[in-house]
Every structure is written in structure tokens, then in C-alpha cells.
Amino acid sequence: MILNKNECQAAGLDPAEVAKIARGISRYAKQAQALGVQVFGGGTGGQLRFSDGGSGDLILAHLDGNFDGGDGANALDADGLLRGEYA
């Protein structure tokens, strides 16, 4: 987990609170990975998925919260802040 403190401050958020959330999500994502489970984020929300070789991944669970996968693109803006899915 890497915390971007400048971006947290630019968003008006406490970096310690963001770090706590990120550590928890990272911990659970590693546990899922160890089971062969993917944490998926898409336009319809979050899911836990498992590839069993079928025509599509099995959806094991739907997750509460705000999830969006996107393509992961990111770049620094003119102020040197890291931004994702930039236009």
C-alpha cells in the first residue's frame, strides 16, 4: 500500500484515516488473492469473483460501497498531484 499524502490533503482528507482504510482493503485483497479470488470493481459495484474455467467468472459475493475498476490510467497534473482516469 502506498499513501499519497499530498493528494489526501488536496482532497481535504486526513491521511491517517485514508491509510487505515487502504491497509484494511489491501489486507483483505491479499487474503482473497491467496484463495484465487479477485476483488472486482466495475460500473455495477464491487464483487468477489473466481475463475473456474467456465464461460465467465463465478460471482461469489456483491460488495457494499463505491467500486469502480476503470483501466487504471493515471498521470501527474500541473500541480504535481496524481490523478486517475484523466481526460
Number of domains: 1
Number of helices: 2
Overall, the morphology is elongated
Average residue pLDDT: 91
Largest sheet, in brief, is:
3 strands, antiparallel
In the sheet with the most strands, the strands line up as: 1-2-3
Low-confidence stretches: none
Question: In percent terms, what proportion of residues is strand?
Answer: 25-35%
| Portion of residues within helices | 25-40%
Distance between the termini: 26 Å
H and E order: HHEEEEE
* E-strand count: 5
Q: Give me the Rg, rounded.
A: 15 Å
Structural class: alpha+beta
Keywords: Plasmid
Brief characterization of the structure:
With 87 residues, the chain is of the alpha+beta class. The protein has helices at residues 5-10, 15-34; strands at residues 37-42, 45-50, 58-63, 74-76, 82-84.
Could you list some keywords that capture this structure?
plasmid; alpha+beta; 2 helices; two-stranded antiparallel ribbon; three-stranded antiparallel sheet; elongated; 87 residues; 30% helix
Annotate the secondary structure layout.
Elements: H1 5-10, H2 15-34, E1 37-42, E2 45-50, E3 58-63, E4 74-76, E5 82-84
Antiparallel strand pairs: 1-2, 2-3, 4-5
Keywords: Plasmid
Protein architecture, described:
This protein is an alpha+beta fold and 87 residues long. The chain has one domain (5-84). Helices cover 30% and strands 28% of the residues. The protein has helices spanning 5-10, 15-34, and strands at residues 37-42, 45-50, 58-63, 74-76, 82-84. The strands form two sheets. Strands 1-2-3 form a three-stranded antiparallel β-sheet. Strands 4-5 form a two-stranded antiparallel ribbon. Strand 4 and strand 5 (82-84) form a beta hairpin.
